[in-house]
Amino acid sequence: MVLNVDLNVPPLESSMADGASGSAHPCISQGATVSVNPQCNHSTRGQQGAVPTSNNGLRSSPIDVEALEDDVEMFSSLRGFSETRNRARRNQPVMVVLDEDLETRPRPSGVTIGESVTTLSLNTHAKRERIPTNMTIINCDLDLDPEEENDAKKRIVMKSNLEPEKVVAKEPTFTCPVCMNPLVEASSTICGHIFCDSCIKASIKAQKKCPTCRRKLTMNNFHRVYLPTID
Amino acid sequence: MTSSSAASRKALSKIACSRLQKELVEWEVNPPTGFKHKVTDNLQRWIIEVVGAPGTLYESEKYQLQVDFPEHYPMEAPQVIFLHPAPLHPHIYSNGHICLDILYDSWSPAMTVSSVCISILSMLSSSTAKQRPADNDRYVKNCRNGRSPKETRWWFHDDKV
């Protein structure tokens, strides 16, 4: 397994390393099987000198907690930190999908993965909001950023190569050609063109024609349509 | 400098405003080839630069379109004219008025500034002779009091150019 560790984030806490659960780290490779318990971290937070943990199911791989300790203190500033965090959160789903592919390929479902993404995101967010400010801070912004960005790019590329079909279909939204907003009370003309109810009314009133095909229309020549939803 | 009386029009309706903002965003993301919107803070009057398409009589020539939007746009057509100097074209009068059906009778609320621009460039591109309309002088004289081209009863007789 490739050890992909984000140096921007605190490492495992020693006391947590063998815990039954932990919060997920957004940039560490991890399988979809990780169980996430948001409560767990709260109990340890706030202890003087305690480093917030990222226990992410990597217990079997040789992470040297002591070695990582050096790399913890890399937040150059609060601003830098929040940027990093945002970036990390943006990358998160990418990372999870990729890992799903590497580690749990036999799993057929994309749905559970999606759920775990959500959980991770919430949890990570909550945890990292409260990163202690009493940590030693070293300004390594300049050294750090390019690396991380490259890393993120790499991950995005890999994702698009590997798992395009896993993306859950989004509800399509159709735009009214008259007002250019999402359809409100979709209505079809007898020539089959669809507009907002109010837009086709106004158009027929103004021109007595279909805005799309110019077919002659009267006020009776359109009706509501009820588009299906994805469920 | 502007040759039209359109300045005295009513302010845009809420619907018109919202739709024009959408069009502007869409334009910025995906402007029609050969056109450049000159940024102003006036949503109701757009000034658009057009460059003649390669391989046509107007290649690399630059002209400016002035697009004025009525209160009830898009239910009503915008007023589109060329600012001086207007291109020499059989359907473009020397005062900048354009004889093009979609700007008047054949306007549809599903059309956009972008689609109108493309039609105008297409009209320029299909021209085979750089000349004014036959009735240019009479028409321009008639419009001297700043009449809008939308008040003209146009006769669309030529479907080739």
From TrEMBL, chain A:
Coiled-coil region list: none
InterPro entries linked to this entry: SLX8 (IPR049627), Znf_RING (IPR001841), Znf_RING/FYVE/PHD (IPR013083), Znf_RING_CS (IPR017907)
Region spans: Disordered: 38-60
GO biological process: ubiquitin-dependent protein catabolic process
Extent of Polar residues compositional bias: 38-59
Residue ranges occupied by any RING-type domain in the UniProt entry: 176-214
PANTHER family hit by this protein: ELFLESS, ISOFORM B, RING-TYPE E3 UBIQUITIN TRANSFERASE
Protein name: E3 ubiquitin-protein ligase RNF4
Organism expressing this protein natively: Cocos nucifera (Coconut palm)
Upper taxonomic lineage: Eukaryota, Viridiplantae, Streptophyta, Embryophyta, Tracheophyta
Automatic annotation (TrEMBL), chain B:
Known EC number: 2.3.2.23
Iron among keywords: no
This protein's UniProt keywords: ATP-binding, Nucleotide-binding, Transferase, Ubl conjugation pathway
Catalytic residues identified in the record: C99
A family per Pfam: UQ_con
Molecular function, one GO term: ATP binding
SUPFAM superfamilies cross-referenced by the UniProt entry: UBC-like
Residue ranges constituting the UBC core domain according to the UniProt record: 15-161
Top-level taxonomic group: Eukaryota
Function according to Swiss-Prot or TrEMBL: Accepts the ubiquitin from the E1 complex and catalyzes its covalent attachment to other proteins.
Family: Belongs to the ubiquitin-conjugating enzyme family.
Name of the protein: E2 ubiquitin-conjugating enzyme
